[in-house]
Amino acid sequence: MNTTPRLTEPEETPEELESLLAAATTAAADWGRRSPHDRADALSAVADALDAEGQSLIIEAMRETGLTEGRLTGELKRTTVQLRMFAEELRDGSYLRIALDRQDPDFVLGPRPDLRRWLTPLGPVLVYAASNFPFAFSVAGGDTASALAAGCPVLLKAHPGHPETSRKTAGLVRSALQSAGAPEGTFALLTGRQAGVSALRDPRIAAGAFTGSVAGGRALFDIASSRPNPIPFFGELGSVNPAMVTSGAERERGEQIAAGFVGSFTLGTGQFCTKPGILLLPRGSELPKRIAELAQNVPPARMLTSAIADRYRERTTELADIPGVEVLARGSEHADPSDIPQVSPTVLHAGSVADLLSEPALLEENFGPCAVIAEYDADEDLRAAISAVPGTLTVTAHLAGQPDDAERQLVSGLVALAASRSGRVLFDEWPTGLAVTPAQQHGGPYPATTAVSHTSVGTAAIDRFLRPVTYQNAPEFLLPEALRESNPLGLPRSTHQPGASQDWAPPQ
């Protein structure tokens, strides 16, 4: 039995929490009114501060998480790149989607008033940091960056798995924002579990963002939804990320696929939300044996926290004990100086797709270096498997370089189905390579996320913390600067003039 001590968190007092909430509320009006260029400069200042103290942050994160220097160096770079990407999005200004409809007495549906629409900040946002990315999904990560970019103050609930890294990062964020002229209360750190729940219930919090487990995320989502004034809660919860391989792909590059799969599902000790947890192979494939051999050569690595290690141990034992499941590679557990165990990979063979689908537990995420393999006989098996997988972040397909007609027909029929079950459909790659770009979609149907229409990665993440407002026949002096006729901020806008083309009007 594991006797690793549990993570504890210092708790803010009710008075301390009240002070933080009041400061965020006061800051909201000021920060939200700042010009996009001013907020862009502030985000760039945060990125510069993190870069300047990068080595000390990485050393602290290595000590607390057991992650390697190379991994954390890359992650910190991603964090500062995200901040600068949002700064550029602000300077561009098109994210506001400003639309002006000029007054038109001859409009086809009757006289049209002057209408001016844009997007405005929601208000203070409560962000829950993730365990597995101490920089990119934590204190100054994508949720924080996108909320600040939108004009929303952020209360950041730190993860207990890396408390000192969180405190050091938060100090740098606060100092950089203050130096850039942001109002007091624009950013603050929470460390207490109860404070994180109490803040979510507070009517001054306008939205929540979370990356973590299904159980924890769903509990918070339910709180946000059951408030007297429900608020949006953008949770990334759990994802099994199935991958399928055609017989043509196996013939062409079976060894490459086996090595890529093992590298992907064991990356970061299997503690990535995009880890491919299920692999669907053609009946009679030689790849399961090769995958097991490669997995057995992967050295053990430390889990992030004792709680994650405990749950992984329980889930892996549960899956391995399912009748008919064959353990192709049995992972082992090893002591670590941190008292959080190191584990080696486990590979399970569920049998046929029918066997896989008969056990719902096999279709649920197991957060750690464990993967499930099942074999399909016909096209219908693949359709049944993808249909049965709960909402997921990704679906991956490996195809032959020059697929024949049968393979083209197979995959063509699966792409729309895969898109209906996930937010990203990949071909001939592995999902753990997540590019941070404007076109990225990191989301999916529940339980992958609680808000299928949005992404938590890429510049489109800013949309989560904005809402539309239209001004009708407003006097110029009462309009926000961005909507005034003179356009003093020089922001892009779409304009519909009186008498513009009305091709969609019915014939007279």
From TrEMBL:
Keyword Cytoplasm found: no
Region annotated Disordered, chain positions: 485-508
A Pfam family the protein falls into: Aldedh
Domain of life: Bacteria
A molecular function GO annotation: oxidoreductase activity, acting on the aldehyde or oxo group of donors, NAD or NADP as acceptor
Keywords: Oxidoreductase
Domain Aldehyde dehydrogenase per the UniProt entry, residue ranges: 10-382
PANTHER family: ALDEHYDE DEHYDROGENASE-RELATED, SUCCINATE-SEMIALDEHYDE DEHYDROGENASE, MITOCHONDRIAL
Name of the protein described by the UniProt record: Aldehyde dehydrogenase (NADP(+))
Organism encoding this protein: Saccharopolyspora terrae
